Amino acid sequence: MNPQKILIAALAACALSFGIGAAYAGGPECPGGGFHDGGRYGHWNAEDRDERRTARQEKLHKALNLSEAQEAAWKTFIADANPQWQRPDRNAFAQLSTPERLEKMLEFSQKHQEFMAQRLAALKTFYTQLSDEQKKTFDSFHRGSDKKRPRGNKKSKR
User: Fold this and answer.
1) How far is C-alpha 126 from the geometric centre of its chain's CA atoms?
2) C-alpha distance from residue 22 to each of 25, 26, 34, 51 (Å)
3) Whole-angstrom Cα distance, residue 149 to residue 156?
4) pLDDT for 77-100, tens place per residue?
5) Burial bucket for residue 77 (CB in 10 Å: 0-12, 13-18, 19+)
6) What is the model's pTM?
7) Class of domain 46-145
């Protein structure tokens, strides 16, 4: 094999391993391994989650261009669509026996179903107040983004 190719492969391997090590190392600006609140990957702390939700609601509010008559329906929708929701305490959950834990999981699932039913009812009530153009904007806003598509396939439609 060509020594030049071996050198290039070795340098690429070093660069790759250095990059992976740097990604996992975190730093002083990244407490807890670099993830949001020191928790597991993808879990945001409550303040970040609330800020993101508020910013997203404001963006939707601007995009909908609501009339004065629709503003009351918007305020009701926002209040009803975000009921207080408490996640179970993981530490307390871990102390339970398996049957108790499964009972709690079933209870949690039922509460989540009630929460989603309340959110759906609020959404339907607000949605009926929108014009056809506003409904299209609302639907496109909640459809998601291209971020979930595979990287090499951005132009194709699902």
Assistant:
1) 23
2) 5, 7, 11, 29
3) 9
4) 888 877 666 777 788 888 999 999
5) buried
6) 0.57
7) mainly alpha
Amino acid at 96: L
In angstroms, rounded to a whole number, what is the distance separating the alpha carbons of residues 23 and 41?
A: 13
- The contacts of residue 63 (CB under 8 Å, 6+ apart) are 137, 141
H helices of 82-97, in order, are 90-94
**Dihedral (C-alpha) 138, 142, 143, 146: value to the nearest 10 degrees?**
120
Which position has the token pair 């090590």? 21
Spans of all domains in the chain: 1-43, 46-145
Structure tokens at 119: 């959110």
Residues 6+ apart with CB under 8 A from 39: 32, 45
Instruction: Note the pLDDT tens digit of each residue in 50-78.
Output: 888 889 889 999 999 999 989 999 998 88
Residue 130 identity (one-letter amino acid): L
Residue 63: both structure tokens together? 């995009």
Query: Distance of alpha carbon 4 from its chain centroid, rounded?
Result: 46
Cα distance from N-terminal residue to C-terminal residue, the chain: 44
